[in-house]
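Give me structure tokens for this 424-residue protein.
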Amino acid sequence: MKGTCVIAWLFSSLGLWRLTHPEPQDMTQCQRAEHPVISYKEIGPWLREFRAKNAVDFSQLTFDPGQKELVVGARNYLFRLQLEDLSLIQAVKWECDEATKKACYSKGKSKEECQNYIRVLLVGGNRLFTCGTNAFTPVCTNRSLSNLTEIHDQISGMARCPYSPQHNSTALLTAGGELYAATAMDFPGRDPAIYRSLGILPPLRTAQYNSKWLNEPNFVSSYDIGNFTYFFFRENAVEHDCGKTVFSRAARVCKNDIGGRFLLEDTWTTFMKARLNCSRPGEVPFYYNELQSTFFLPELDLIYGIFTTNVNSIAASAVCVFNLSAISQAFAGPFKYQENSRSAWLPYPNPNPNFQCGTVDQGLYVNLTERNLQDAQKFILMHEVVQPVTPVPSFMEDNSRFSHMAVDVVQSRDTLVHIIYLAT
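Here you go.
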């Protein structure tokens, strides 16, 4: 999100609306009803703002729940704010040195690009792990959460942070200390990967330069859920034969994956992905193909997603809600497989469903037979499409492109009310 201020509740809201959980017999009526919409101006009196001179591109936000503080990453800056009123606690300048800037200019990049854009901001215990593009030489630091000037160590940001501020990325830290990042691995951005580093488990990545694994993806979000790490993104659909189109995906890997032996060395053996469907039903469905933002409600196992039309088409946005069980069901089903470039994409039975996540009790190498590794190398895409909770998107708006969302759940007198904040 670019701009010169951070608004309370994470986003400067274009609007918010409420979605209740009706009884099944009321579902049809609920789909027909208009959701109440409240504009940004109407909630203005209850919002707080933070502005800082010369600070732009407030793109990363995270919380320190223990101290009730908000940590914000902007271009060349880190800020600590009071969560209650967004008052400034600490501001830290984190710029590139002159030599790094000159090297960036020599590669044909502009002054605007050769800055330090904060793209990773993660809390782990009493430390803040943060990475910046650093003029196309990404770098990461571990800092004290209570004093952002106190740097404990500095490491390369390669495979942890994008080189370019224009490249989308996502990252998370697990309780075990592993960093999962989905980002571009190289300067030109031609080698996207989902990569695990740090911690005690071996570093692993998606297969390099293989469009069936990742095909020009734009990464959106990631979540640590149970035995898996989930990633949400949009990419050029390799299975679509009639011209170029973008599909939205949910992907996952097992957290105890240790990679292959001989085959798939240093590579995921449990990477799988499935298409997410968000569309307006009809004789000819109208598809919102491009995922822009997600929000996970762990207490209800729901994933909210903003989907838009292609940038070259008429602007339209929709919110679709997915149950985690529906995503798991797609991953348990058959694969979609193409024998060679001239063959059709056909369903293929899951040859070894238990290979999805071996347990430590069974031994880490129990599933690493040559046959299993061959299957893991070629069976990536699931045949079943993940369908949303309701056939009609929960919210739709034409002539708008939503880009960010946040969801809150409050208890009303007789039902749970989902309040959704949407921003352009």
